[in-house]
Every structure is written in structure tokens, then in C-alpha cells.
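Lab notebook, bench 4. Continuing the backlog of folding jobs that were queued last week. Each job is logged with the same field layout so the records can be merged later without manual cleanup. Today's entry covers Flavin reductase like domain-containing protein, a 203-residue chain. Filled in by technician R.K.

JOB TYPE: sequence-to-structure
TARGET: Flavin reductase like domain-containing protein
LENGTH: 203
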Amino acid sequence: MQFQFSELTPSERYHLMVQSVLPRPIAWILTVNDDGSHNLAPYSFFAPVCANPPTMVVSIGQKQPGEDKDTFRNLQRDGRCVVHIASVDWLEALNASSATLAKNESEVSMGNIPLLTDNDGGLPHIDGAPVAYYCRLQQVTDLGPAPQHIVFLEIDKLVVAEGVDYVKGGSTRLSAAAINPLARLGGSEYAALGDIISLARPE
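JOB STATUS: finished
OUTPUT FIELD FOLLOWS
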């Protein structure tokens, strides 16, 4: 079967894409609201872009036409965020944080999600999350009539939980099995890591 995307509605295109681009990593993004509370929301249109400068990209839509999501508003105002890679253990909390709440209602407070604050007094990160990237807003490109905000984030710092990092051959490595990342599929489906296949690249 073939699908001509020019003949489909945006909703039809979206559902085909999320049910076929699989699995997708999830950026669980923490930002600070203008009242000092914390917003937390998952995004699966997300990927690393390059290492120099260390950059990630996340696509953020709108709550409804003309109304930006809290994550984007907070990034535009404050410029900072923490991108977590959640383990499978966080499935229920992550899914609950995708609910649409009123401005300044905190998913962190509603979900009783524990936070850790570093000594530098900056943003906190989720206590128990295996991976947390401290990022700052680099640039935004808008696509489409809605628009969809394509947000580039530059990484300042990476925090990994105990047991995630190890040393092999004199180099620090991160264990995919220890991270046990949660992935997004289509509809209401999520996925766990499954089999890990190790295969050296050819010379």
C-alpha cells in the first residue's frame, strides 16, 4: 500500500508517522514556570543532532491553535531545561505527565516526582532518572501553519545515575541495559529496550 502525503490530512500523516518511525526516544523535559514551580512533559519527536556543539532537537507543537505549550513558553522566557531519558520504571509517571494542565499547574507536584538540586543552585533533575541533560535554548525554527516549533538545545552538562557509567579500555561508557530506556510507539503504546545486539563496524 502507498500513501501520498499530499492527499492526507495532518492528523492522518501524524498517525502514520508515529506508527512507523519506531521506536522513538522520549525527551522528558523539565522547565521552570514563571511562578517558580516546575513543568514536566514528554516529547518523542526528539533526537541528538551533533556533538560539536553538543546539540539536541525537539519538536514542540501547540496545546491548541494560538496557544503554546508550557514547555515552549518556559524555554522562551528562561532559556533552560533538563532533558531526562526515563527508564521503563518511570512509565506511569511519564505517561501521567503528558496530560494537558492549566498554566503553572505542576506535573511534578501532581505526580509527587522527587527532584534533586545540584550545588550550583540551577534547575533540579528527577531523582532516580538514569540520564539528565542540562540544556539551554540555542535556536527555534518554526514549520507549518500551526506552527510546529523545532527547538535546538545545547547541552551544558550530563548527569547519570549510579550504575549507569563504567570504564572499559580506559574510556567511560554508559550502559544501555542500566539506563533501560522507555521508548514511544504509536497510539497509546510504549516499548522497552529488548535485545541488545553488539556488532563491530567494518574497517
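OBSERVATION: The CA atoms of residues 13 and 150 lie 18 Å apart.
SIGNED: R.K.
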